[in-house]
Structure formats: structure tokens, C-alpha cells
Amino acid sequence: MVYRYYPAQTDKVIILLHGSGWHSQYLLPLAEFISSEGLAQVYTPDLRGHGRTPERRGDVDYISQFEDDLADLISLIRKGNPNAMLIVGGHSSGGGLAVRFAGSQYGRQADAYVLLSPYLKYNAPTMRSNSGGWAHPHTGRIAGLTMLNNVGIHWFDYLTAIEFNMAEEARDGTETLSYSHRLNTAYAPRNYKKDLGAITQPLLLVAGTADEAFVAEQFEPVISQYTTVEVRLLKDLTHMGVVVNPAIRPVFKEWLEGLDRE
What CATH class does 2-133+187-261 carry? Predict the structure, then answer.
């Protein structure tokens, strides 16, 4: 797994998972802040199927591979930091993957979770239509492939399930503009209600009130039905702003420092 590492002299470690369509480079400003303030060591992996030179762009080998990859990264981190407080977080689809991980066999390996405007499900109350125009899912194909998966058939999981509407000026050749069914499924909670219900660790959720993809005000009433969550809504921040805008930094600082007191 390719990852970016931001060192710090602390026994806290946070893994931040990027959202759909690109890779972990856009997490750099937030990761550098967390590192430079000594709040946590930060790892930002380029998830399989993403990055500058992935083996197969937009695809994985099997549906649970992201979870296995993340568990492998945690094992690697633990070798050098056996007593670290390990936090798993993610933005957008990366937040969805963090929720999926929490509900998996590996979920207890994290000591806390942080979600930045996370994807829960296409029909969750937090969703705007087609993620505000960003995502174009092949809904009929997804439904058919899901039915096949439910009876154990995975022969056609390589087929494209979703495409992304990334502006031409934002592209640099390292973007990933479509996902296979197996990658698209791997990136989201299995069942967000059950996966959220598995979280008993400290959980922070941050979203911006100007989020184009999700309805920020719905996160607290939806998620609090299934687990205890601290929700911070940041005024006028967009979907990307909740990662790159400096307004997110004091929220992270306060929360990470507060974990010491829990």
C-alpha cells in the first residue's frame, strides 16, 4: 500500500482515508497541521485502485479488500507504535469506509473514529441527489449485481458501477473517474445502521453547512440513533472545505487533545 506519512512526537496515530475520485494528496494541509502541532502522527494511504500508478485503476480484487488492507496498515503501524492510541478517520467515501471498517471483524483495532462528511448510503437521509451532481451511478447494474452477490455470484463484479463528474481543470492524470462494482461496494458501509451501532469508541463527525453532496444537518439525528457521536457543523464550509479550510483545524486540535482526558 502506498501512503504518505506525517511524523510527530506523540503516541497518537491517525489514519485518514481519502474520498472518491482522487487520492490522499488533498489531505496534506490537514495532515501537516495535525503533525506539526504534535497532535498525532498521520498516515494517509492511497487506497487500492487509486493514486499515481495503481495496479488496476478503479478496481480491487474482492469486496472486503479495503478492510484487509487497512488492517494490514494498522499491523505495520503497531509494530513501531505498540501502545499508540490509533484513530481511523475518513472524508466522504473514506468516511464511509471508516464506518464499514468499524462494523467489520477489525473494528476494535481502532481506539477512536473521526468522520468528515461521510457517505452512508445512496438513500440515507444525509444524501443529496447523486451527491450534488458528483456521482453518476449505474443504478440498474448495481441492483442486478447486488442481487447476484447476495446469492454468492461475483463473476461480474469487475463491471463499472459508478462514474464521477470531475471538472477538467481539476484533473492531472492521477484521478480515478470510475469504479468497478466491487470497489464501489468496498468503499461504503455494508449496512450503515449496523456498522455505526458497532462503534463504542469516541466518535467525532464534522461537516460543513454548505456541503453540496450531503445534508449536514441530518448527520446528528441519523447517526445518534445508532451510536454516541459528537457532531460539529462548520458554518459555510463546503464538502471539500471540511478538509482543506483552516476552520477544521481547531476542531481537530480540541478533539484530539480531549481524547487524553477520556
Answer: alpha beta
Question: What 3-state DSSP class applies to 99?
Answer: helix
- Residues of 8-18 as b/e, b for ≥16 C-beta within 10 angstroms? bebebbbbbbb
Residue 261 has pLDDT above 60, yes or no: no
What does the alpha-carbon distance between residue 178 and residue 50 come to, in Å, rounded to a whole number? 10
What is the distance between the alpha carbons of residues 238 and 88, in angstroms, rounded to a whole number?
22
Provide the residue ranges of all domains of the chain, joining segments of one domain with +: 2-133+187-261
Rounded CA-CA distance 249/253 in Å is: 6
Give pTM, 2 decimals.
Answer: 0.94
| Virtual torsion, Cα 207, 213, 217, 219, nearest 10 deg | -70
The pLDDT value given to residue 260: 75
Evaluate whether 96 touches 90 at the Cβ level (below 8 Å): yes
Question: What are the pLDDT digits (tens) for 176-226?
Answer: 999 999 999 999 999 999 999 999 999 999 999 999 999 999 999 999 999
In degrees, to the nearest 5, what angle opens at C-alpha 56 toward C-alphas 51 and 62?
A: 110
What are the distances in angstroms from CA 138 to CA 89, 130, 141, 164, 177?
28, 11, 6, 11, 14
Contact 214, 124 (CB under 8 A): no
| pLDDT, mean over the chain | 93
Q: What distance in Å separates the CA atoms of residue 108 and residue 127, rounded to the nearest whole number?
A: 28
**Amino acid symbol at 150:** N
Distance CA 70, CA 184 (A): 16
